[in-house]
Batch of 2 targets.
Target 1
Amino acid sequence: MEFEKQSALITGGASGLGRKAAQLFCERGAHVIIADVNKEQGLQTVTELRENGGKADFVQVNVADESSVQTLIEEIRQKIGRLDVLINNAGITRDSMLHKMGKEKWDQVIAINLTGVYVCTKAAIPLMLENGYGRIINTSSVVGLYGNIGQTNYAAAKAGVIGLTKTWAKELGAKGITVNAVAPGFIHTPMLDAVPEKILEMMRQKVPVLRLGEAEDIARAYVFLASPQSSYINGAVLSVDGGLTL
Ligand code: CAA
């Protein structure tokens, strides 16, 4: 129960990586708050977590919308009184070759995957500072490190996430808050539904461990970086990709 008496805010926690993370944090004693735009899935996830003995709440939030994120943090302050862990995990893809990528697809991905991380972290910091303690984990991607055909918008956002992770690690380290990023490879989640089978097979062949990742592979990395024991890891980008990028 390494997160007993701690609270963990997980954006995009209704499904995919975030949902698995919510489960692992609940099992380890955290009070989990799932912030997600998808109400139906969010409520269903929270119901399941509670049925398994977890402490969990759902709040419907668009991470790019400053005022609703601010309201969410106020609610956490009033109902729980502290925020120990923030996992900026919410993300979307709108893949397209550059020559076909309309600005709308660029704007959507930058808003959720990059601006959302800025908005949520800026709003959460004052509450973390009240206790002089915090663990912030940002979800980047192998695509942010190395690029990917068809993902101009996503690669730009995920590379941006690495830049802000390192900046915040420098700004906040002295205040008891560490900031790290996880860079997942290709992981079995609903996000992969949009990827053609031919491309997935190509990725599978490239991974030295000969499989795509599972949500739990990433959720375990979140737990590791969020734990009180990782206090000397700050500004790191942890690749969890089965060696895809070697
Ligand atoms: N590597 C190598 N070749 C690729 C490629 C890739 N990643 N992606 C596309 N291509 C190739 C295609 O095979 C095709 O080649 P041929 O002309 O020789 O057949 C060519 O590029 C054009 O591709 P499409 O015919 O598919 O073009 P399209 O305009 O219909 O679709 C696309 C373009 C939407 C980008 C589509 O190719 C696609 O969905 N690609 C996959 C994009 C991807 O990898 N997304 C990752 C999502 S998961 C994620 O983002 C999580 C994470 O953090 C990793």
Target 2
Amino acid sequence: MPHDHTPRTVLVTGATRGIGRAIAERFVALGDRVATLSRGTEVPDGVLAVPGDVTSTEAVDAGFTAIENELGPVEVLVANAGITRDGLLMRMSDADFDDVIDVNLAGAFRCARRASKGMIRLRRGRIVLISSVVGLYGGAGQVNYSASKAGLVGMARSITRELGGRGITANVVAPGFIQTAMTDALATDQQEKYLGAIPAGRFAQPDEVAGVVEFLAGPDAGYISGAVIPVDGGLGMGH
Ligand code: NDP
């Protein structure tokens, strides 16, 4: 732990695998008190696993209360839980559209709303919403997903306007192609197509996103809010 680091209570949604897991591991390594709200319970060592589905307001509120009772008020929220239900617009079902919005966008809203109560009392807080390059770049077959991820930008900026005067920041991290279960599910030809378009010429590891989240939650980022930080090897050219 850095010698001058004051441990914080950090909640990362969806830390059972992939990017969320890497983010949770980062904060554990820093010496923070880390919890996750996920449907699964396979979490990194040192992380308090609170079972919960972000599509349920009751589960989110109960999960926050359990975390606060155990670890104290949540000072850093990383809304990471996300899903894809890809398909072409013409054939996309209402359920596939609604499910993605419910987890990715409304799930982040439910967590941010509940987190804001404690942060306002603390008079400080950091909210980081995990979006995607696809939010602003678009993605064929991802009308639902890109709409949900673009929505997070408006959400972070509105939170910034509402709560910026209370020591609370809200930012968006927009990863590009990160090697996780979500991207392993893409067809090889699709992966090759992306690889050809990424100036860095490679995909990233989840820990490369975790480092940016650590920065946004840290002391040097206190004056950054409403920003979209791409971690995409140049794919979106900074949007
Ligand atoms: P994974 O599918 O590997 O992990 C998703 C996590 O979200 C899991 O821990 C899962 O846990 C959790 N989750 C899913 N639905 C719910 C729910 N309803 N309630 C609570 N937790 C839920 O995805 P990645 O790590 O790849 O992605 C993480 C985030 O990063 C997502 O928001 C994704 O959109 C975004 N992203 C990923 C990119 C990539 O290249 N991988 C690129 C850009 C953005 P469980 O199933 O146990 O509930």
